[in-house]
Amino acid sequence: GLVVGACVSIKPPGGGGGGGPCRPRRVPGPPPPRAGPPPPPPGCRNTFGPTTIRRMKWIATILAAVSVATSTFAAEQKLNVLFIVCDDLRPELGCYGNEMVKSPNIDALAKRSVQFDRAYCQLALCNPSRSSFLSGRRPETLRVFDLKTFLRDKNPDLTTLPELFKKNGYAALSFGKIFHTGNGNHEDDQSWSEKAWKPKREPSTQPKHEAEEPGNEDPNATELPYEAPDLDDNVMVDGQTANAVIDALAKNKDKPFFIGCGSHKPHMPFVAPRKYWDMYDGNAIKLAPFQQTPKGAPDFASNNASELRRYWGVPKKGPIPEDLQRNLIHSYFACVTFVDTQLGRVMDALDKNGLRDKTIVVLIGDHGYQLGEHGTWNKRTNWEIATRVPLLISMPGSASNGQKCEALVELVDLYPTLAAACGLTLPDKLEGYDIGSLLKDPNAKWNHASFTVYQKQVKNFGLALGRAMRTDQYRFIEWAVKGNDKKVYELYDETNDPQETVNLADDPTKKALVDELTQELHAGWKGTLEQ
To answer: Is residue 126 flagged as an active site residue?
Structure first.
């Protein structure tokens, strides 16, 4: 409780010593009565005498002092935010049910968090996804659909999530990959309190392969898609990032902060120190069970594994050989464990500096990822596996920590949720929901769908925008080209066909359902679900 006398020294009217050491003490009573005006005649309304007025002023002074002290106390109790973003991390973790993947530190965080089992990105590609959740707006509104478009080029006046914290007196600091800065894009300096920290390049240990070597089909490919070099963690980019975040936590432990901690792995190429590769038995790794385009789906719905096929030794077309698939998944798992180890060090530093009880910790993947599902790899589709992400939110002292939530939520919801949790005034035009009610009660009623888009050039169709909606049971996708009346639909029953093997959109018995879902899709994120 707040002890007023410990922080405020008041000199009462009529005498008594003020000032002196600030310690709890009894506040003197009112001075003895003295002569004053006669009492009012019977029947008249009472009036305040000088003594009463002095007492009231004294009480008002004390209340004002208490208000100042309380405000100062509240300011000192600002919640920090540690915002962890893992590049290309799908929910392939122990806490999400994969018993093979070794992720003890993320699993431990999950036990101190609400784990969202059905969280989705807004576009399965690094830059558009990050631009969306860092601005609280959707890709269609931002007009950011590719890797090269800088967020502020088309949206110069928006306030990003870290920028909002910076404006409210927080140290907003970036370490590793938070904004997408490759492919001709660059850092958003306006968002941070100081220049974003950048790591040194990691040493390359794999030999340069020649394009004419046997087994290679791409004349421009000289780099393997995976590697397990014998290197120390600290020379790797994500090891360096963890070190920098650990230093920042110690440096900023006595002031409010928003720290972005971005890992580059498990993004391709899948490179982690050999000790992490050695933790897995490659022969025990299972391949994706369904490796075809869904029956009845348009061919352009797939990405044809275009990102993977740019690497040395990967076929330019056709199936990916099973032995290569197994090595790719093996190295992806190794990268996950490597990242998990670095995040464990960061969590230890949070505890060492006494920050766990006053820091909100968020962990996300920026989008989902395909590891052979539907016969393709990487991201860049509207299917479930490419859009579903891990999402952990640890609120200090919450009774809900350790629980799982099945509600459909989106990464765009993070902006209003974190701002509200820290008592910040939300800017206008945010396009997500505050999921604070789910953090308090993971089983609370929630009737919103999740929405994802993907834009691509389609032969004989045009620049098509695929708009996907995930309801409790279905994934519904509409592909359309502006100015063209033609529409192409996909419909998957996620309850009865979780691998999305069959597109039901053209099934005559599903016409009423398609019409209903089309209406809900067009109503957009502000609509509610009937399912």
So the answer is: yes
